[in-house]
Amino acid sequence: MHRTLVSVDELAARVNDPLWVVVDCRHSLQDPQLGPRSYAQGHIPGAFFAAVEDDLAGKKTGTNGRHPMPEIEHFAAFLRDLGVTEKTQIVAYDAGADMFAARMWFLCRHAGHEAVAVLDGGFAAWSAAGKPVSTHVPARPGTGTFEPNPRRELTVDAAAVLASLEDRAFSVLDARAADRFAGQNETIDPVAGHIPGALNRPFKQNFDARGFFKPPAQLRDEFTQFGVHPKRLVHQCGSGVSAAVNYLAMEHAGVEGSRIYPGSWSEWIADPARPVATG
User: Fold this and answer.
1) End-to-end C-alpha distance for the chain, whole angstroms
2) For the chain, which residues make up each domain, given as ranges?
3) What is the DSSP-derived secondary structure letter of residue 232?
4) Distance (Å, rounded) from C-alpha 269 to C-alpha 65?
5) Which bin fits 257, alpha (ψ -120 to 50), beta or left (φ > 0)?
6) Are the CB atoms for 102 and 252 separated by under 8 Å?
7) What Å distances lie between residue 36 and 7, 58, 84, 87, 88, CA to CA?
8) The whole model's pTM is what?
9) Is 273 exposed, middle or buried, given 0-12, 13-18 or 19+ CB atoms closer than 10 A?
10) Residue 219 Cα to chain centre, angstroms
11) Which helix (H) or strand (E) holds 174?
């Protein structure tokens, strides 16, 4: 069972295995059609496409952030449509050194499916290795039997984050770029800044120059430098997507027990009573 990352060669050896389901999660926040367009131009043979805004996010209310978590049963139905059973190994990939495959990975984990991994290096690594690419769109079999076993302990809500500002029950680690964390160059959300007291680790810092995850030992060293026990660390970002990359990196490095605040900054600022810091 692969629970964090899978290599290009490992996936290539199992790409026709009926017990493996591959999911293309390529997406762009600036261009929502980039994912479907890229998938149509070529994808890993047999891969299904996951629409980040629809399959990997729930309904927006105006106060629950830009990418609220989908309802557990809605997501489970999506997995069953792809043919996922309790024995299925799921592999998610994006363009490479990106955040969307990690989102799919976290949603599977949150729903109680442990056999899920991210393709290390993404589609860029697959293509660079000369592996086959297809334009054939496989029919979703709809034969899955997966039943969710929600792991709600993997997340915290806004009320818990607000309380933590007083009782210091945990620390928040923001995965956004340093300038957005500081309240500069904000182009996505209507309010700039960060949750008071939050730490910052841009999710891109988990990748090496080639777009692969850094070695586990290096990731361990980098995360332990924050001086926070993993069980007292909560990941956050703009809308709960890139936070999953920091979470995945820690789990891959064996630094286990952290959680995610799914609503993240876009939910936090929906209530003007919640405090904001800059700098």
Assistant:
1) 43
2) 5-128, 155-268
3) G
4) 9
5) left
6) no
7) 24, 19, 22, 28, 24
8) 0.97
9) exposed
10) 17
11) strand 171-174
Q: Which residues are catalytic?
A: 237
| Closest C-alpha among 188, 204, 190, 200 to residue 242 | 204
Q: If we measure between CA atoms, which residue out of 255, 251, 183 comes closest to residue 225?
A: 255
Task: Compute and round to an integer the Cα radius of gyration of the chain.
Answer: 18
Of 198, 195, 218, residue with least CA distance to 206: 218
Tell me the two tokens of residue 75: 């997501």
In DSSP terms, 200 is beta-bridged to: 174
Alpha-carbon span 106 to 209, nearest angstrom: 24
Structure token pair of residue 219: 């990731």
Tell me if the domain spanning 5-128 has CATH number 3.40.250.10.
yes
Domain at 155-268, CATH homologous superfamily? Rhodanese-like domain (3.40.250.10)
Are 107 and 151 contacting, i.e. CB atoms less than 8 angstroms apart? no
pLDDT digits (tens, 9 = 90+) for 35-82: 999 999 999 999 999 999 999 999 999 999 999 999 999 999 999 999
Here the tokens at position 208 are: 């090496």
DSSP string, 185-218: S--SSSS-SB-TT-EE--GGGGB-TTSSBPPHHH
> What confidence tens digit (pLDDT) does each residue in 222-258 have?
999 999 999 999 999 999 999 999 999 999 999 999 9
Closest CA to 209 of 91, 43, 96, 94: 96
